[in-house]
Design a protein that fits this description.
By secondary structure, the protein is mostly helical. Helix content is 51%, strand content 0%.
């Protein structure tokens, strides 16, 4: 039976996480540009602008800025979500998204779960030495 190919499939390969598509409306762009402009001015202007957003506007903006989490550069963000090219041009835009996420997550009482690679890193760091990771 040498040379005969096995019809069995190899073990299942892990499925790649397909990122959700972000829809950026003109209203979302206007909200983002207003927030981004005030972020450059000063911290009080930035926080006041975010506090003056309506609930609906805050939800729209939160839906966009949550995608900046756990990314080390804006390029990494754009690889996963190319539709963000319209509003993300520099690393400062990504940093502004982080600050916006912090304020809005507290205001809306919404928090994104850690991705698997970050959970593993956290589990490996213990108070005394290192702990073995627990894979779920």
């Amino acid at each position: 039976m040498a040379g005969k190919k096995s019809s069995k499939k190899s073990e299942k390969s892990p499925k790649k996480h397909k990122p959700e598509k972000i829809e950026i409306s003109n209203r979302a762009k206007r909200i983002w540009l207003k927030v981004r402009k005030t972020w450059d001015m000063s911290l009080p202007a930035f926080t006041n602008t975010l506090s003056l957003l309506s609930e609906e506007e805050a939800e729209i903006l939160y839906g966009i800025v949550k995608h900046s989490l756990y990314k080390d550069s804006y390029v990494e963000m754009l690889r996963e979500h190319p539709e963000l090219r319209e509003i993300v041009k520099t690393d400062n835009d990504r940093l502004c998204m982080h600050d916006t996420y912090e304020v809005l997550s507290f205001r809306l009482n919404k928090f994104e779960d850690f991705p698997d690679f970050r959970k593993t890193q956290i589990k490996m760091k213990g108070g005394i030495g290192r702990e073995a990771p627990v894979f779920e």
